[in-house]
Amino acid sequence: MTKQKEIVLSGIRSTGNLHLGNYYGALRKFVAIQDDYDCNFFIADLHALTTNPDPEQLHANVKNILAEYLASGLDPEKSTIFIQSDIPEIAEMYLLLNMHVGIGELMRTTSFKDKARKCLGLKAPADGDSDEAFEKEIIGADTNKRVNAGLLTYPTLMAVDILIQKATKVPVGKDQLQHLELTRRFARRFNSFYGVDFFPEPTDFDFGGAPVKVPGLDGSGKMGKSEGNCIYLVDEPKVLRKKVMRAVTDEGPKEPNSPMREPVANLFTLLELTSTPEVVKHFRDAYADCSIRYGDLKKQLAEDIIAVTEPIRQRIGDIMADEDFLRRVVAQGAERARARAADTLAEMRQIMGIRKF
Ligand code: TYM
Fold first, then answer.
1. By C-alpha distance, which of 295, 33, 42 is closest to 165?
2. Burial degree of 277 (CB within 10 A; 0-12, 13-18, 19+)
3. What is the pLDDT of residues 250-292, one digit of tens each?
4. Could you give the percent of the chain with pLDDT greater than 90?
5. How far is the CA of 224 from the centre of ligand 1 (A)?
6. Dihedral Cα 289, 291, 293, 299, nearest 10 deg
7. CATH among 3.40.50.300, 3.40.50.620, 3.30.70.640, 1.20.1280.170 for 7-101+153-212+323-352
8. Starting from the edge strand earliest in sequence, which strands make up the sheet with 80-83, in order?
9. Residue (of 137, 135, 139) closest to 120 by Cα position
10. What is the CA(6)–ligand 1 centre distance, in A?
11. Which residues are marked as active site?
């Protein structure tokens, strides 16, 4: 008898073009594991709605990401590739699972706090400050500045994506680990509340290494669409070189073996992802003995990134032009994803006592 492959699932929100953070945090891993697992990759358009996008833009972004998935090497014959909103069972299960999720635990989620603060125009509290003011602001916010409930229940929806397919492995970047922890907690809670062994507890999935956080080019924090610090897979080489050459650095090391400041460490992180170990060593040694020229490092980095992105960029155009192919891919993906989702949902309704007379 052949052994059942483990179920892998992951998704990316359709909020814009994919950047290097999405590529190294998620997409590259998706491509690498397609042969060995039961792979399910989707476009999280319902999650994108939590930030109230323009409808035309949302639709265009779904198509862009689909083309970017395929151009990066996702193969519809090996993986189930689908759009989240094509699976109505997800919306129903989201309602059911929310009955077992606490608003307190959702409000304490880091990504919720960050996004809610942005909605309200608040700064993050300094280390050690309490969040009391923030919580008051959320409850008292006027309707123009509201933090929508979809943003609060984002982790429930993400848990549903995973649990409805009974996935056990979830390849994501570091920023998603807290959501995954919540998914495990919700699965455990459901199982123990109803005395069943229904949902498996999924773990993050990083073959050969820890989850990565790809930094931006602006000196601090992660690369992110809303931070305006991204290198996109669709960036033309000219644009990409310009972005890298403008990346923030410092005045350079003054003494041998000086500690590295964050903006420079970030460039090294990018170099480690895209260049060979020899190149990385060359620049690390140059930093250590103070002979480094950041201009040279940036030039090398730009070319190494282009070597990764350019073949993908060139394929994206051709794929985008073939609408029939794109439609076929997602129709086939939806059919496969719905089959398992419908089974899970039917059983979940039974367990919760929603039964037919
Ligand atoms: P999204 O669109 O924010 O991110 C998609 C994936 O890209 C990774 N990522 C990064 N990794 C490393 N460094 C970065 N700078 C960086 N920026 C983004 C994210 O970790 C993620 O893996 N909530 C998910 C989408 C989702 C999902 C799911 C994922 C919805 N349902 C179920 C897995 C399973 C998200 O944040 O997407």
1. 42
2. exposed
3. 999 999 999 999 999 999 999 999 999 999 999 999 999 999 9
4. 84
5. 10
6. -80
7. 3.40.50.620
8. 80-83, 38-44, 7-13, 169-170, 203-204
9. 137
10. 21
11. 115, 222, 225
Instruction: Find the residues whose C-beta lies inside 6 A of ligand 1.
Output: 9-13, 21-22, 24-26, 44, 47, 158, 161-162, 170, 172-173, 175-176, 179, 212-214, 222-224
Element (H, E) at 12: strand 7-13
Ligand 1, pocket-test mutation among 175, 180, 204, 205, most atoms within 8 A of CB: 175
Domain boundaries, the chain: 7-101+153-212+323-352, 235-318
Tell me the C-alpha distance between 152 and 174, whole Å.
Answer: 20
The pLDDT score that the predictor gives to residue 221 is 86
Its pTM stands at 0.94
Right CATH for 235-318 from 3.40.50.740, 1.10.240.10, 3.10.450.700, 2.40.128.20: 1.10.240.10
Same topology between domain 7-101+153-212+323-352 and domain 235-318: no
Please choose, from the candidates 57, 65, 61, 16, the residue with its C-alpha nearest in 3D space to the C-alpha of residue 41: 65
Choice from 7, 8, 9, 12 to test ligand 1 binding pocket (greatest atom count within 8 A of CB): 12
Cα of 211 vs centre of ligand 1, distance in Å, is 11
Please write the tens of the pLDDT for every residue from 17-70.
Answer: 999 999 999 999 999 999 999 999 999 999 999 999 999 999 999 999 999 999
Distance 145 CA to ligand 1 centre (A): 26
Structure-token pair, residue 57 = 């833009």
